[in-house]
């Protein structure tokens, strides 16, 4: 019996060792995997699905070009149900599966929880670290007091967007009464507080006449909020809403017949243009790092082919997240510089400070806080745009191009590096 037990233990050890060796070999020779942790069910499922299609398209394009270090890129979809706690569990699942990269963007509350989880794992599990690539969570805290060596943001932070937006708005003589409406979480609270400060500093002719927070993903009828906008006498609305919370808001403003300029972060896609259609012309604005009519006649033919091919594959949506292009190709460049897709610390060092030639010009991943610095564009809906948005028949026309130096805000980050 003792001999049998020893034989069983020996065999079990061999099996475990074999599995470990197979896992290592798979990690080094199999696809480079990125966990996509986003809502794929619930009220924001359409946003999660659109982002997934963007990432898988970009991965396919990289793979068509030979992959990264000769290895394919594979996007692993994980449904976080828009929950910070679910997201933390999915990071752990990624670590257990040997996945070194996670990406997320919808919800800065989720992003904050993910930074904490990644930091905790990388302190405790130094041989199985993970890098968090953030393509849309824009609360400035994520690259200020909560900044992390293992977190990189490829979207402009909210303070950068408001810096650029108010520099434009201060020269618009028809902006006098501003109504703020935002989702009730960290992202919305920052917009409320910072926008109030910037109006005082830069728009002496204007005043805030309303400042409302609403539950995230729970409002089905925005007409009571629109009634408050109407009663306030506002001529301008500023909102950081996204997904259905923006589409439903814009539709309610349109249904009420309000001829009111609306400045958004995310008005260019994911259902919002279709919610208002041609009636949004000269009214619905957005501030973004790109839109389809940016410099379309100035040598961007390759990128035009890129988003035209995306549209052919996914006719129901547009190529909207230019930052996903930047994120995927900057990650590719960093891994190829290191020569190893498993050395997370070295890949992070290759990313920080990286200058990258994007279709919109040179962009830089600021080393101090891992915040991308890039040109920004303010645009407005226009029926004469070359490309429409959301199959709405209306596209976007640039009204202001903000160079990098005017789309930069200092950081208070005091980063701890390994």
Automatic annotation (TrEMBL):
Keywords: Signal. Residues 1-27 form the signal peptide. Residues 31-383 form the Leucine-binding protein domain. This is Branched-chain amino acid ABC transporter substrate-binding protein. The keyword Acetylation does not apply. It comes from the Bacteria. Belongs to the leucine-binding protein family. It holds the Pfam family Peripla_BP_6. The keyword Disulfide bond does not apply.
């Amino acid at each position: 019996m003792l001999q049998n037990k020893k034989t069983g233990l020996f065999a079990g050890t061999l099996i475990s060792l074999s599995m470990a060796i197979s896992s290592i070999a798979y990690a080094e020779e199999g696809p480079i995997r990125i966990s996509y942790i986003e809502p794929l069910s619930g009220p924001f499922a359409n946003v999660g699905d659109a982002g997934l299609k963007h990432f898988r398209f970009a991965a396919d394009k990289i793979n068509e070009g030979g992959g990264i270090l000769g290895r394919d890129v594979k996007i692993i979809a994980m449904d976080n149900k828009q929950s910070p706690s679910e997201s933390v569990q999915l990071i752990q699942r990624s670590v257990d599966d040997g996945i070194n990269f996670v990406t997320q963007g919808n919800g800065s509350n989720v992003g904050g929880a993910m930074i904490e989880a990644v930091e905790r794992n990388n302190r405790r599990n130094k041989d199985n670290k993970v890098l968090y690539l953030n393509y849309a969570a824009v609360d400035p805290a994520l690259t200020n007091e909560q900044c992390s060596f293992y977190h990189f943001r490829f979207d402009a932070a909210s303070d950068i967007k408001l810096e650029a937006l108010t520099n434009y708005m201060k020269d618009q003589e028809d902006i006098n009464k501003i109504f703020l409406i935002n989702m009730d979480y960290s992202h919305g609270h920052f917009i409320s507080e910072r926008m109030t400060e910037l109006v005082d500093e830069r728009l002496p002719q204007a005043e805030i006449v309303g400042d409302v927070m609403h539950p995230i993903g729970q409002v089905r009828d925005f007409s009571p909020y629109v009634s408050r906008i109407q009663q306030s006498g506002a001529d301008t609305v500023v909102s950081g809403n996204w997904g259905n919370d923006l589409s439903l808001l814009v539709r309610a403003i349109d249904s009420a017949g309000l001829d009111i300029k609306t400045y958004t972060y995310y008005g260019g896609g994911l259902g919002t243009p279709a919610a208002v259609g041609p009636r949004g012309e000269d009214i619905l604005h957005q501030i973004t790092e790109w839109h389809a009519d940016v410099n379309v006649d100035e040598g961007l033919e390759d990128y035009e082919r890129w988003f035209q091919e995306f549209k052919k594959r996914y006719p129901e949506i547009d190529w909207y997240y230019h930052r996903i292009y930047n994120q995927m190709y900057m990650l590719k460049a960093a891994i190829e510089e290191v020569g190893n897709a498993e050395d997370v610390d070295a890949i992070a060092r290759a990313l920080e400070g990286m200058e990258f030639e994007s279709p919109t010009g040179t962009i830089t991943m600021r080393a101090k806080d891992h915040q991308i610095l890039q040109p920004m564009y303010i645009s407005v809906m226009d029926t004469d745009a070359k490309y429409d948005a959301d199959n709405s028949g209306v596209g976007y026309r640039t009204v202001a191009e903000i160079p990098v130096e005017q789309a930069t805000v200092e950081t208070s980050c005091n980063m701890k590096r390994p």
